[in-house]
Amino acid sequence: MKTFIACAALAALQLFSPVAQAEAAKEQFFPLLVYRTGPYSPNGTPWANGKQDYIKLINARDGGINGVKLSYEECETGYATDKGVECYERLKGKGASLFDPQATGITFALTDKVPGDKIPLITLGYGLSASADGGVFAWNFPLMGSYWTAADVLIQHLGKKEGGLDKLKGKKIALVYHDSPFGKEPIPLLDERQKMHGFELIKIPVTAPGVEQKSAWLQVRQARPDYVLLWGWGVMNSTALKEAQATGYPREKMYGVWWSGAEPDVKDVGEGAKGYNALNLNTSGQSPKVIQDILKYVHGKGQGTGPRDEVGSVLYTRGLVIQALAVEAVRRAQERFGKGKVMTGEQVRWGLENLALDDKKLGSLGLTGVIRPISTSCTDHQGSTWVRVHTWDGKQWAFSSDWYQADEQILKPMVKAAADKYAGEKKITRRTPAECQS
Amino acid sequence: MFYRENGQFKTSYAADSQILPIRQDRIGMALLLGVAFVVVPLLSSEYLLRAILIPFLILSLAALGLNVLVGYCGQISLGSGAFMAVGAYVAYNCQARVEGMPLIVALLAGGLGATVLGVAFGLPSLRIKGLYLAVATLAAQFFVDWACLRLKWVTNDSTSGSVGIAHLDVAGFSVESPAARYLLCLGFVVVFALATKNLVRGHIGRSWMAMRDMDVAAAVIGIRPMQAKLSAFAVSSFIIGVAGALWGFVHLGSWEPAAFGINRSFDLLFMVIIGGLGSISGAFFGAAFIVVLPLVLDKLPYWTGLPMDTATASHLALMIFGALIVFFLIKEPHGLARLWATAKEKLRLWPFPH
Amino acid sequence: MGPFLETLIGGLMSGMLYSLIALGFVLIFKASGVFNFAQGAMVLFAALAMARFAEWLPALTGLDGKLVVNALAFVGALAVMVVVAWLVERLALSRLVNQEGITLLMATLGIAYLLEGAGQMLFGNDIYKIDIGLPKDPMFLFEQTFEGGVLVSKEDLYAALIAAALVAGLSLFFQKTAIGRALRAVADDHQAAQSIGIPLSRIWVIVWSVAGFVALVAGMIWGSKLGVQFSLSLVALKALPVVILGGLTSVPGAIVGGLLIGVGEKLSEAYLGPALGGGIEYWFGYVLVLVVLLVRPQGLFGEKIIDRV
Amino acid sequence: MKKIGGVVLDVKNISLAFGGVKALTDISFDVREHEIRAIIGPNGAGKSSMLNCINGVYQPQQGSVTLRGKTYRGMSPRQVAEMGVARTFQNLALFKGMSVLDNIMTGRNLRMRRGLFWQALHLGPARREETEQRAHAERIIDFLEIQAHRKTPVGRLPYGLQKRVDLGRALAMEPSLLLLDEPMAGMNVEEKQDMCRFILDVNDEFGTTIVLIEHDMGVVMDISDRVVVLDYGRKIGDGAPDEVRSSEDVVRAYLGVSQ
Q1: Domains of chain D in sequence order
Q2: Residue C66: alpha-carbon gap to chain centroid
Q3: Which residues in chain B have their CB less than 8 angstroms from residue A128's CB?
Q4: Tally of structural domains, chain C
Q5: Is-contact C256 C18, C-beta < 8 A?
């Protein structure tokens, strides 16, 4: 008892003293919000490993960014919002200059906090779709794509399969989604597309975390949709595939968002998932140069975060890409605010708003083929969505489509409208071009 | 030596029935409040305020509310998370739909919303007892979780189902800064703690405890089971509802139903039981334990100096958390509050135990 | 008609699994008056153990042959669960005798955290596979009667059969065998039990081991259906209403309750769900219980409670 | 010698059963103003059930209870309490978590009306009410000579004192009819003498009518005016102590056994 109290007291001291060693040593500090435990850990882990390995790579291969070493600290959120907020507050105090919350719920909570703290949020491929509008969401960066762009591309792809979007008329498309903000985000866009093309959209919610899907799939079987869009995360994906098999729904007709198309989702389903398709923002596999470098400089030196064979897997690479973009944002910021300096949150935001990664640059980073070129601006915090469909052949993922790009005609007005609604609720005034330069 | 009540004689029943009969306690309480209201906001870091003290205060408030129900009236509830959720969403709707609705009013409205639900789910308690009731209250938990996700008007038609609130101000003063948020919560906590204390030392409180200890006897004395139980449910869920509203407005700022999931309910019950059933201070001890302990455990890798990857660390933390809970339930089933009380008893005689 | 039958059968089959987990609750409650929230964590723990053993065994011993490996892994996992049972009794229960029900309940929640943490730390927190060769593809009945036929998932069918067999076996065990009767004796009256010369502590170890065994089987079945990972621990929440509906202390209650809720929630989801926006099976079981309790406060098969003064 | 008045409580043909088990069969007896009426009988004779029927804890299947001319069957304990019937319990039914004072104060609850709001503020009316009732509770504490234990949780008191608190809680209701369920069970001689004294005092100082269940024949014969004898839920004797003592059935059924 006494000893316990003693420990507690000791720890409390540790706890309540805000540590700031990051700035002290001339290092660029990257807070890593992760979930390696809980229902989503199988997907959260490779993602987190990718991010960490890339930081290690930059330090080992390039000696940091223009000589500025990168430091990092992980904080376990377990995908829980309040824990995520605690992590944010804790790591913020250690000189964090950008965050990747790695969870939609946490993103929502932090979106309210970051403007006050002047720290940008990277939410690559997730978060609030409307936050692509930099005029209102000054600190959010849904780089490369949001759920709306994903849904848009999926419909485009289905249209292509049918031989033209007009052919979707009268078709039935079921959306099996994770019953949370994450799963609900795509609905507005799908409704929009439904109006345009006259297909029938059937919405089937699955209660988180998604281990109970029997009735959902019996509904699918009874509705006999032509396609099923799968909007799941974590265990929900593999369960969905198993239930699809158990109710005899053809996997070839199932299309997942880019969070429903990774190894953990299909691994233990194996042959059962054969023919299942999903979007993917990045390549998978160990061929790209950057992956090779990681194997050489990080895993080669026994510094690897996760198991070696996980390197290059879909979510691992996604994490890597996120971290790469973060690093490039810092590099870009340094070009303006002084090479070899530690960048503040505001400066990193400028970097994020002025990303210009063309093929040449990507090549120098070893990211050729991993992603398409991306450039952002003060008003466009997303850059254009380039995404492909890949298909599980029972052993591995293989791309089965060419690059798609989301249809700006449809998205722009929706984003604008949603952003304005948000601005209204929160009483935010749009940024003027002048503010963009600060 | 210094903690004595010698020479403090009570000359009136009023004086005798005051909350802190011993002078030293009154002084201590005054000091405590002084520190809480003045010193803490001035000195403590943003992290301490935002990530520890604010959650601590809000959860103690919720635990206080739950203690009224479980600790004083003896009705086990596993649905507190739902009541917090209702509080938060009702408050949100008041703010979002009614132009210029003052913050405090919105928060209290959240409490009232929770009260309605509380009474509704309290009615079964007239027939259902013990564990049966406990599981029945889970119905509230799951139903509300679902409703908040499903019913569009609950979230004011936000496409994602997640809601957030614009900046907070009370009577023109902005409560954006951590210190201000902290003080707001502290204000609520102090007021409700006092009110609850008054209730439990009055006849209503006695009727609750009577129901808890021996319901048949209580009925024979002329206590109406219905009145006693429902009033307990009402008071309890009101406080919990306000706590929920604070959690959403002041702590998270933007939230989804998952923020009030079943684990929240379990945590609250832990706070009440580890802190001490049927004691006001217990709610605070319990909340401190449940809020701070995980943070302390997160620090394990540092001050054990062992290199530990995040996963192992948090698994270990989870294990130790569980183990400590069992440990406390074994060592002091009556909770930390009792521990504190016995310590004071000893101190009262120290250094001459006879 | 076809869809209805499908849903009904689907419900019955998941219901059987609920009954199985519920049985774990009932056993422990009968014998030690503990409402064991750790049941779900035990399912996870057991499943993790079995999955990993099945993975490690071939690597270590070079054994192959699915049956052998699975059998050994099962035994291994069972051994682990017995140890867990023993530890729980030693370290927690024996020190918590005649505490309030709520205190015990909270203690088991603590145990649950302990098991979840330990399980994932020892056995890892990725998705693991239990392959006991349950067929994955569905079969179709009455294809000539209804168009599309009536779909029955073979996997669920076998799972339900295993569960049913186990439930039947355990009920027999409790009715017929000496030790079974002894366990019931404890349930009814602790003194009585001691007077027939059975040490309470051993009874508890046995009961928790049996519960561990039930958890293992449940874990094995669900694990092979869903893959073994953290979320398995959540299936316990599905069993809670079953236990209460049946009436805490009744084995038949657990069975009937399980089937009722299984069928109820699937049918409600299929036919009420769309109208209410879906996802209602999430709460259906609990609300059903609430309603039933209003009529029968002691559940369907529980003993009536009379206040004596 | 005190004067016995008219009938206050009239119990007619009460029958009570739990499921199949008959607890009481066709019991009738009456209680007069100011008298001390004893109910005796071996264990399981249905004595406590009888009291439970009188104050509304159990609802008899047949028969009726008439209290001061008001006939009822199936009245809630609360209503009975409002009619001035108080009761103590055989196996202590005190509120263990509460102090002696609070236990006795609960006896005043019927008279305390201030709502949640005033209670929460603990100001003005609520505070005044509290102090008034407190004063009354203190009188009872003095009467029962338990001043020293005011603030002690009843759980910590010795058995004998707990019995006193139980009585105190009933007295706090200022009852006109007091039902005592084995007030002296498990007491030593001194404690019994004290308890007898209290009962007699209550009976003639406050003029309270008392119905008393007791095992100790000595006590019963000394203090009670009339005795009802129950056996297996039936009435087998009724009358003055000496009559009862001499009655065949009673001797066979009860006294024979116990002495």
Answers
A1: 7-84+175-258 (3.40.50.300)
A2: 25
A3: 160
A4: 1
A5: no
Within-domain flag for C273: no
Q: Is residue B16 part of a domain?
A: no
Domain hosting B69: range is: 46-349
B203 and D114 in contact by Cβ < 8 A?
yes
Q: Indicate if the pLDDT at residue A426 is higher than 90.
A: no
CB A342 within 8 A of CB A68: yes
Assess if residue B35 is contained within a domain.
Answer: no
Query: Cβ(B238)–Cβ(B118) under 8 Å?
Result: yes
Decide if C287 is inside a domain.
no
Assign A260 a pLDDT band (cuts: 50, 70, 90). very high
Mutate to test the interface with B, among A19, A37, A107 (most CBs of B within 10 A): A37
Interface check A142 vs C, CB under 8 A: no
Is A418 an 8 Å CB contact of chain B? yes
Domain extent at residue C115: 30-236
Q: Which residues of D touch C305 (CB under 8 A)?
A: none
Chain B nearest C-alpha distance from D81 (Å) = 5
Closest chain B residue to D107, measured at CA: B221
Does pTM top 0.90 for this prediction? Answer: yes
B40 within some domain: no
Closest CA to C287 of B147, A216, A180: B147
Q: What is the length of chain C?
A: 309
**CB-based contact (8 Å) between A306 and chain C?**
no
Reading the block at residue D205, the tokens are 């100082």
> Collapsing DSSP states into helix, strand and coil, what is residue A321?
helix
Which residues in chain C come in under a pLDDT of 70?
186-198, 305-309
Beta bridge partners of A405: A386
Does D162 contact chain B (CB < 8 Å)? no
CATH number at B50 reads 1.10.3470
User: Could you tell me if residue C128 is inside a domain?
Assistant: yes
Chains linked to B by 3 or more Cβ pairs within 8 Å: A, C, D
Please report the residues numbered 183 through 222 in chain C whose beta carbons come closer than 8 angstroms to any beta carbon of chain B. none
Residue C262 class from Cβ within 10 Å (0-12 exposed, 13-18 middle, 19+ buried)? Answer: buried
Q: What is the ipTM of this complex?
A: 0.90
Residue B271, in any domain of the structure: yes
Shortest Cα distance, chain A CAs vs residue C46, angstroms: 17
How far is residue D126 from each of residues B242, D99, D116, measured CA to CA in Å?
Answer: 25, 21, 9
Total domain count for chain B?
A: 1
* Better-predicted residue by pLDDT, A203 or A11: A203
Residue C281, domain member (yes or no): no
Specify the DSSP class assigned to residue D57: S
- CA separation for the pair A125, A143 (Å, rounded): 6
pLDDT, tens digit, 9 for 90 and up, residues B16-44: 777 777 788 888 899 999 999 999 998 88
Tell me the domains of chain A and their CATH numbers.
24-145+285-383 (3.40.50.2300), 147-280+388-408 (3.40.50.2300)
Contact criterion met (CB below 8 Å) for A42 and A235: yes
User: Do the chains contact at A34 and B51, CB–CB below 8 Å?
Assistant: no
Per-residue 3-state assignment (H helix, E strand, C coil) for chain C: CHHHHHHHHHHHHHHHHHHHHHHHHHHHHHHHCCCCCCHHHHHHHHHHHHHHHHHHHHHHHCCCCHHHHHHHHHHHHHHHHHHHHHHHHHHHHHHCCCCCHHHHHHHHHHHHHHHHHHHHHHHCCCCECCCCCCCCCEEEECCCCCCCCEEEEHHHHHHHHHHHHHHHHHHHHHHHCHHHHHHHHHHHCHHHHHHCCCCHHHHHHHHHHHHHHHHHHHHHHHHHHHCECHHHHHHHHHHHHHHHHHCCCCHHHHHHHHHHHHHHHHHHHHHCHHHHCCCCHHHHHHHHHHHHHHHCCCCCCCCCCCCCC
The pLDDT tens digits of the residues spanning A129-149 come to 999 999 999 999 999 999 999
Asked whether the predicted pLDDT for residue A18 surpasses 80, the reply is: no
